[in-house]
Amino acid sequence: MAFEQLKLSSQICFRLYSASRLVTQTYKPFLDKLGITYPQYLVLMVLWEADNQPVNDIAHKLLLETNTVTPLIQRMEKMGLVIRTKGIVDTRQRIVSLTKEGKAMEKEAAKVPACMLEHFADCGLKKEEVFRLVPLLDEVINRLKDHTKDDFTTSKTKK
């Protein structure tokens, strides 16, 4: 290989991607019992924290584009979990609110984090090890969010 830095084993991004995919796959059986997907679970968590939010606020909190979140919310509306209404001040804005069913799901969903920690323990990861990742990942996320608008061509990499 001409460029060692291009080896998959040298990539931080691949480790983050792999960990993210594996964690998301681990959620699947727990969320299947609720009849929802991982992205739907994320939207519900945002709404359980604070109901009646504009679509663009939900997208911002999930680090997604509005055009990614809108079809997701439309599917959730068909499932009876949320409803969308026009904004009062700006009628172009869509406000997403939990339905009775969406609110009721919170009680069952509250069991998911403990199930995940149990699964991690079954894999040999102690709760303390998992929680040590939180501040480090938060730091990575926050620093990258601050620089996502930088032009790739202007990055200062050594050649």
From TrEMBL:
Major location (coarse): cytoplasm
Compartment(s): Cytoplasm
Cross-referenced Pfam families: Staph_reg_Sar_Rot
GO MF annotations in UniProt: DNA binding; DNA-binding transcription factor activity
GO cellular component: a single term: cytoplasm
Top-level taxon of origin: Bacteria
All residue ranges annotated as the HTH marR-type domain in the record: 9-142
Record key words, sorted: DNA-binding, Transcription, Transcription regulation
Family: Belongs to the SarZ family.
Protein name as it appears in the record: HTH-type transcriptional regulator SarZ
Species whose genome carries this gene: Segatella oris
Lineage of origin: Bacteria, Pseudomonadati, Bacteroidota, Bacteroidia, Bacteroidales
